[in-house]
Amino acid sequence: METIRTKKxxxxxxxxxxxxxxxxxxxxxxxxxxxxxxxxxxxxxxxxTMEEARFLGDLVRRAPMEGPIIEIGTLFGWSxxxxxxxxxxxxxxxxxxxxxxxxxxxxxxxHRWLTEKLLADAVKxxxxxxxxxxxxxxxxxxxxxxxxxxxxxxxxxxxGTRRDLEFARRVKTSVICGHDYDKTKWPGVVKAVDEFxxxxxxxxxxxxxxxxxxxxxxxxQANT
Length: 224
Hints:
Elements: H1 2-16, H2 37-41, H3 50-62, E1 69-72, H4 78-86, E2 93-96, H5 108-118, H6 120-125, E3 128-131, H7 135-141, E4 149-152, H8 158-170, E5 175-178, H9 187-195, E6 199-203, E7 206-209, H10 217-222
Parallel strand pairs: 1-2, 1-4, 2-3, 4-5
Antiparallel strand pairs: 5-7, 6-7
Helix pairs in contact: 3-4, 8-9
């Protein structure tokens, strides 16, 4: 039953991307080929690049071992696995996503099920917790230890990114970092991050703030 469900999920993924799965045949006429390498290469999986992944791993290793790591925006768990491989096994990692949006148009139920399958080993063996909930609700309810690191890759609007940054500041996070610092694609992310001091380091579009930069410029100006 589980195998059948997995096959159906894969078929749904490809159909949502406009492709069709067919039984393998050794010789398939060119006109019958439904997926080309060019089409596969053009797919947007919504994930970080390998260069950014290496930088994220470095940030995790540089962060304090005390306190949990919090990821805002799980998607399908690619960055979650990068963080899991870089952190100490016993250090908790909490990854938060409401599973409402994904680049393939999956339903929330399909999105949640697929991500749970992809992260099953991390959850079972490496102290990873998947929270399927709205991030603002998570922020309001959080009463745990001071986070070692917060990684942000969810709502890319100015308001959404600012709320992420305000949460990380409020709980006194040691390392605050995130994805998609890109003026062309995500000007809201850039505006919010710049108001909190701007990137100390930037690799691709993956940024990290100065540790001391916790007060946004707007708040400083308002208090002077």
